[in-house]
Fold these 2 entries.
Entry 1:
Amino acid sequence: MRLFFSFILIFLCSAIHELLAQSTPKYSNEFLSIGVGARGLAMSNAQTAVVNDVTSGYWNPAGLLSIKDQYEVSLMHAEYFAGIAKYDYAAFATQIDSVSHLGISIIRFAVDDIPDTRFLYDANGAINYDNIQFFSAADYAFLFSYARKLSLIKGLKTGATFKVIHRIAGEFATAWGFGLDAGAQLERKNWKFGLMLRDITGTFNSWSHNTELVVDVYTQTGNIIPENSTEVTVPKAILGVGKQFSVFKNFGVLATLDLISTFDGQRNTVVSSDLISVDPAVAMELDYKKVAYLRLGMGNIQELTDFDGSNYTTMQANFGIGVKIKEISIDYALTDIGDQSESLYSHVFSLKASLNKK
């Protein structure tokens, strides 16, 4: 328990330290807040306490210890904004020994084939479409996770994820970043508890701009010439709780709640203040013989102002199904089903496979 509270103290000190940095942006590396795996997305990202597979490298590395097979792999693809943005994810996990597991994850979120029209007009002032080139704006994350059981508390699982971030905007700008996540899970009968501390040391992105490519155009159009800089992703804490129920003969229900706490200033969340903002996410997973699954989630609760000045509350509802055939799991999620605009929701598919040496 002393180790656990020391862990919390270190996190809080780190969060306070990052808050003192006046140049710290409120939103940084937001592509890492989307989530991975159709199961987690269908459950509105409420995974901290209940995640138990290869996707734990992202949600909570302590969950890697719940994997029973020697190897586990997962793939996911999703598209956002009517297919303009592509989101891809791949992960691998394996057992090191009876008390420790290892996981590796790769995430790519990108908009490809962006037209570069700087040379649309030739030297004679005529439009030449052959001069248009294309580039990609892409964000990459490489996650290296390690989980280990601790004998200090019975059933306590802990883990950490080291993150390497690489972001590119064609040949115009690149960034490299590094950060650390840490998590823990504890089970008591049918109750599950989880804690995830993201960016506990602050994740630093160092941007390098190739200003020679844009200085002429930016000067003519009156835009600010970008400078090399460093941005910091402020720590975030997620506390989760879940419980497994048995209903009828072959049916089970898993209910879970996550409290996502941020420390980068006031946000539009249920609990909002200058010191801390808390965004709850609640989800339920109904299973039939652990073979077929139905999932529902609710999160991202916000209060918005209408054109007439009145306030109203919105929330994001997600839905998903899954099926497990022997060692293969196929999951589907429909995110943000409360919106009618096609650009605001996404169909997500993910595949998971378990393998053993035998």
Entry 2:
Amino acid sequence: MAYAQTLTPSEQDHLQRRWYWYDWANSAYATTIAAVLISPYLTAVAKESACPGIEDGQTCHTNLNVLGVGIAPGSLAPFTITVSTLISAVVLIFIGAVADRSEHPTRLLGIFSWAGALTACMMFFISGTNWQLGVVLIILANVFFGASMIVYDALLIRIAPPDDRDRVSSRGWAFGYLGGGILLALNLVLLSLHDTLGISEGMSVRISLLSAGLWWAGFAIIPVLGLASLRGTVATPVERSAGVVRGSITQLATTFRELKHYPQTLSFLLAYLFFNDGIQTVIGSASLYGKEQLKFSDSQLVQTILLVQFVAFGGALLFGRLAREHGAKKLILWGLGLWVLVVLAAFFLPERAFMLWLALGLAIGIVLGGTQALSRSLYSQLIPRGRESEFFSLYQAMERGTSWFGTLLFGLVYQFAHSYRLSIVALMVFFVLGGYLLSKCDIREGIRAAGNQVPRVV
């Protein structure tokens, strides 16, 4: 069984360098599509369908007919993400059980990555009033994205020993922010110069969506091929004679029964459910909030996310370094305190105050990568061996781009109050609850209960 402790430092370094590339690859989707362009673009398409000829910045008071339910165009994007998460909550948990029984985990990584990338590329064809295609593609892309991350995150345990995971996870996130930032910079040029290039703003957005899918597909080749040596090394508690599908269902049922034996792991997941939903909803709704509530242009929003990307590169490395002395748990709690301040500042931010908006982006960048990277590495310590993918499937059901309580609350508040300010400030409850639950979680006891080595500092 090839876990990190059985590898030489040279072998660990070799595998870690290739592992980082998947953060670089998938961040194109997470940044250009999920965080910046798709929500405001889908909203614009939906508003054009419900209120033909509506001007930018105007509120459309005509609802869309979505399976017989009236949905405000401004709520369509957050509700779509909510639906994709509910679907993911079922699909991804089963995928995690199957992945733990696979002799070729990197093949699964490739399948899910390239399926997601293809779906992202197809977003190029969202245009006019065709919001229905956008809804379907967002749901599929988020499910494939989450599925690939289950396999990817589980590999962390096999390439990094316990005392190195904060560092390795933080470098992966940092590398991802750098890659996503580079592509976003290129797309910023395209969005800013679309008139000079002789194309419409809508076409420049569609080309940017396509570029993210191609970037994801191309760079995923490096980790898929570079980590192929890890195949066939996963332990499984279910007899292989049961078959992959039936055996995976049996394993999954066993895991849910056994969760009561890992109360601290369950407590961490509950805390993560709340604070990560808050983080993901802020990330996914920031561009919508900035455009519809604060009246910023698409190019200004891309500039902001670009700033966040490059600051988050340094923030992730900083949090990883501080965690060596103070522990991942304490750093995450510090980060959640800053998130509360960010949400409050966003509520009071005046319209068109772009410099203040950039200052808010700077604060988000500092804390964003660190809280996410350290959450991943801390959770990896709480997973029993042989159940990596399966337990990370529970984690991924709540991971980036797959919030459900947060986007649901955000959409409902807007649906009834028609105020994005009230929607954004309502998210503060997720950071407060998540931080409280995490503060009560005994991480060392959870690591011991999972049968793992306790790091020097947690």
